[in-house]
Structures are given as structure tokens and as C-alpha cells.
Amino acid sequence: MYCNARAHPSVILLLLVPLLVPYSVLQFQIIAGFPDDPSKVVYIKESTKWFSLVGGGFIDLIRMLVIPIVFISIVHVILHMEAGANLKKLVVAMISTNLGMVAVAAIVGLTWGMLLV
């Protein structure tokens, strides 16, 4: 069966962007003269400020959403418990799960910290 479908130009562009990005980074390095300290190059400093604005806003958005979602999920579980459910058992399981997650996050964070130093 013959298909006469063509890819949309934006799809082609999306496929080519990963191939072109390393060359553009190399061009910026050539223009800047391969500096030892990239933070002293003006356009790198400015673009870092703009990217940190977007990245910082995204992290703040995630922080703002996490606490209400956790609170709502806890309230949902408590409200939809069966009549014979043991609240003490639920609380112990919840706290132990949270402490386990914190321990795993601390181990991963300390390991990455030690590897990067």
C-alpha cells in the first residue's frame, strides 16, 4: 500500500534540534574564546540569570504543590477509612514510610554529594 504522507515541518525541526545543539554550543565556545571561567563571559552570565528565573519558578511551583497534595491525600485516606480500621496502625505505617523515604533521599543526596566533591 502506498502512503503519500509528509512530515510536518515542525516535526522535522524537532528531529533536527538535538543534532544542531552541540554545534551551537561549540560556536558559543569559539566566539567566547574557550574561557577558563565561563561565568565571566557576559552573555553566559545573562543567559544563566534568565534560565535560573524559569528553573527557580518551576522548583517553587513544585514546592508549593507538594504540601497541599500530601495533606489532601492524608485527609482523603482518613475520611475513607472503614469503621473497623485501626487509626494507630495507619499512623505508624504512614510515619515509618515517610521516615524510610527521608532515609533513602538522605543516602542518595549524601552519596551524590560525596561523588561530586
Spatial gap, N to C terminus: 59 Å
- The helix tally amounts to 3
- Net shape: elongated
Question: What percent of residues adopt helix (DSSP H or I)?
Answer: over 70%
Q: Which spans have pLDDT < 50 for at least 5 consecutive residues?
A: none
DSSP E strands, number = 0
Strand content: under 5%
Provide the descriptors you would attach to this structure in a database record.
single chain; 117 residues; mainly alpha; 3 helices; 79% helix; 0% strand; elongated
What report would you give on this structure?
- With 117 residues, this protein is an all-alpha fold.
- Helix content is 79%, strand content 0%.
- It contains three helices and no strands.
- The chain has helices spanning 9-32, 42-79, 87-116.
- The model has no long low-confidence stretch (mean pLDDT 78).
Quick rundown:
The chain has 117 residues and is mostly helical. 79% of the residues lie in helices and 0% in strands.
Topology:
Blueprint (H helix, E strand, L loop, with lengths): L8 H24 L9 H38 L7 H30 L1
